[in-house]
Amino acid sequence: MHDVAADFLCHLPTPLQPLPWRGLPLDGKLLLFERNTGLNALLEGEETAHLHRLAPRTLLVAVTNACNLKCPFCYRPPEARSLWRYDSLMTFCEEAAAWGVLEVAFGGGEPMLFPRWGEFICELYERTPLAINFTTNGTLLTEPFLKQIAGRYGQIRLSLYEDNAWAETVALLVRCGARFGVNWLITPAALRTIEKTFAQLLSLGVRDVLFLSYKGNEFPEMHLSPDEARRFAAFLQRAHTALGGAVQLKLDVCWGESLAGVPSLFGTGDCAAADDFLSITSDRQVKPCSFHEVAVPFETIDDLQSYWQAQRAARLPAPLGGCARLPQRGLGEKGGVSHAIIPLAAIQQQPQR
Ligand code: SF4
What we know:
about 20% strand, alpha/beta, 2 domains, binds iron/sulfur cluster, globular, 13 strands
């Protein structure tokens, strides 16, 4: 399939042109992405004015619902089945790549429990141009596994929990030269020791930190109050000023506008759920993001494309207190949570906004 990137490489600086770029047409722009370096280049001008978005950038795929930990705040539905198998997941990813998707971000459950996970990553890297990322609690990572997948993935995202011995896992990842970052849930409790924990992360060799917000309704005490959000924003500003580009400081999209004064690379005014990314469940359903309750079963990649076309402009909020699409971020509200599964046909009939 012709990749639109080839027509635009002449606009890049000469040393960058030989990289194996892929292009994702956006509305009036072109995003160029290179999976081995993680480089992005956004082109916008007369030459790109005719382009239209044809696919989401990323699919978030829960490869299994099984997990070896029992975190009380976990949002995955315990009753959901694990329907993906090696071959069905491979075929699905190949079709997603042909659609134009640039990245897959695997999660779960715990992806390390997916049978032949290392082999799957290696084969997927060979068979598709996709960037392959996965989020793990890290407890099952080993040196042989990291050697097996070396050079064939984009990033490993390590979740920091109280009970997953993350410091030891970080040491393993650093020792093996793995490409990784940490995912850190910022609650009021985490905020109280944020400077100390952050210093520990840096001393261990972490250079990429994604700060996550709590989204759920079950534990209102895990949401930051406005005052705590201000303190967190002040911490981020201090860290950014002190570290500059030496450490990547990332915020999940659900923080929305709640962290006043924090410098941002991308200020799009929306989280882009269902447009830039879709969430695929372990039981082969699709949702705008992992925190939506309404999931739609799908069979084929055509089903998924129809869902994306129908949903991308709707900008539906998740019915959770931490969703940035809710008025005032909905903090402290109890959303009217629905577990209903609606048929694809009903979604396809919804008018686009
Ligand atoms: S819809 Fe809400 S919960 Fe989902 S990604 Fe967007 S802001 Fe976050």
